[in-house]
């Protein structure tokens, strides 16, 4: 992977996760970004600064797209680009003190090379890419079942579910049930572990980049709700699903 030291990145994730665990009993600085449901804390910024510092130190020629704006202004995917979500599930971090993740994606010239998702409070780490496979807590990812939608649990973004965007309630009724965690990282982990077969959500690039690399490597379908290919820099309404469930999901989501 052109000089990428995976073990070094795994070490950064362990250190970042411990920083987050240690911070849970502290008072937080919390501010709004786009509104009352879109929050950022001092720890979001601290973790992103920590990751950016290390990337700059060891990979000075690379560019960085970070949710909190610490990195670069990335408008194309030439060269190697790191896409960072320092705390995915910030509201959960604030309110629940669990169900949040740190996510890193490494993309070279528009090709996903390696994705990392760390579920901090459960110490669940999934990482990998097309050249190395996918690993869960140090072991090859176990196989998942390619279930039909009717035999599957599905995960849906809560705002999309509340507003029934793109017929997501029909998708729910066609499945075994809906699970909503409001953390893309943990939703991707459950999808990769076979605990659910479909994930539908509104996502920014840092929300889906790592999960996309891991899902595509593992044979899980990834697209916009319309069935179009994903980019790396656009915010999307996306669907990620095992192959048989994907076909049914796309039909329902695009039903007129």
Automatic annotation (TrEMBL):
GO terms for molecular function: inositol monophosphate 1-phosphatase activity; metal ion binding. The keyword Chaperone does not apply. Mg(2+) binds at residues 67, 85, 87-88, 207. Keywords: Hydrolase, Magnesium, Metal-binding. Its cofactor is Mg(2+). GO terms for biological process: inositol metabolic process; signal transduction. It comes from the Bacteria. PROSITE patterns: IMP_1. The keyword Lipid biosynthesis does not apply. InterPro entries: Inositol_monoP_metal-BS (IPR020583), Inositol_monophosphatase-like (IPR000760). Gene3D superfamilies: 3.40.190.80, Fructose-1,6-Bisphosphatase, subunit A, domain 1 (3.30.540.10). PANTHER family: INOSITOL MONOPHOSPHATASE (PTHR20854), INOSITOL-1-MONOPHOSPHATASE-RELATED (PTHR20854:SF4). This is Inositol monophosphatase family protein.
């Amino acid at each position: 992977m052109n000089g990428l030291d995976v073990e070094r990145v795994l070490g950064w994730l362990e250190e970042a996760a411990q920083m987050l665990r240690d911070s849970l009993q502290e008072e937080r600085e919390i501010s709004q970004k786009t509104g009352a449901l879109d929050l950022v804390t001092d720890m979001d910024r601290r973790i992103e600064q920590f990751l950016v510092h290390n990337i700059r130190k060891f990979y000075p020629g690379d560019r960085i797209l970070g949710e909190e704006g610490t990195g670069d202004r990335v408008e194309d995917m030439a060269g190697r680009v790191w896409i960072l979500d320092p705390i995915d599930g910030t509201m959960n971090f604030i309110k629940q003190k669990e169900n949040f993740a740190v996510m890193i994606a490494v993309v070279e010239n528009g090709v996903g090379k390696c994705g990392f998702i760390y579920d901090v409070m459960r110490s669940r780490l999934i990482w990998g890419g097309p050249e190395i496979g996918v690993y869960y807590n140090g072991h090859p990812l176990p196989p998942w079942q390619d279930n039909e939608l009717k035999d599957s649990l599905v995960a849906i973004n809560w705002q999309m579910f509340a507003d029934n965007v793109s017929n997501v309630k029909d998708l729910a009724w066609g499945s075994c049930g809906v699970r909503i965690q409001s953390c893309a990282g943990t939703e991707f982990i459950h999808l990769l572990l076979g605990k659910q077969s479909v994930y539908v959500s509104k996502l920014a690039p840092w929300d889906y980049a790592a999960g996309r690399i891991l899902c595509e490597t593992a044979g899980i379908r990834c697209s916009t709700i319309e069935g179009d290919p994903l980019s790396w820099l656009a915010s999307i309404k996306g669907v990620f699903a095992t192959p048989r469930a994907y076909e049914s999901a796309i039909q329902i989501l695009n039903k007129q």
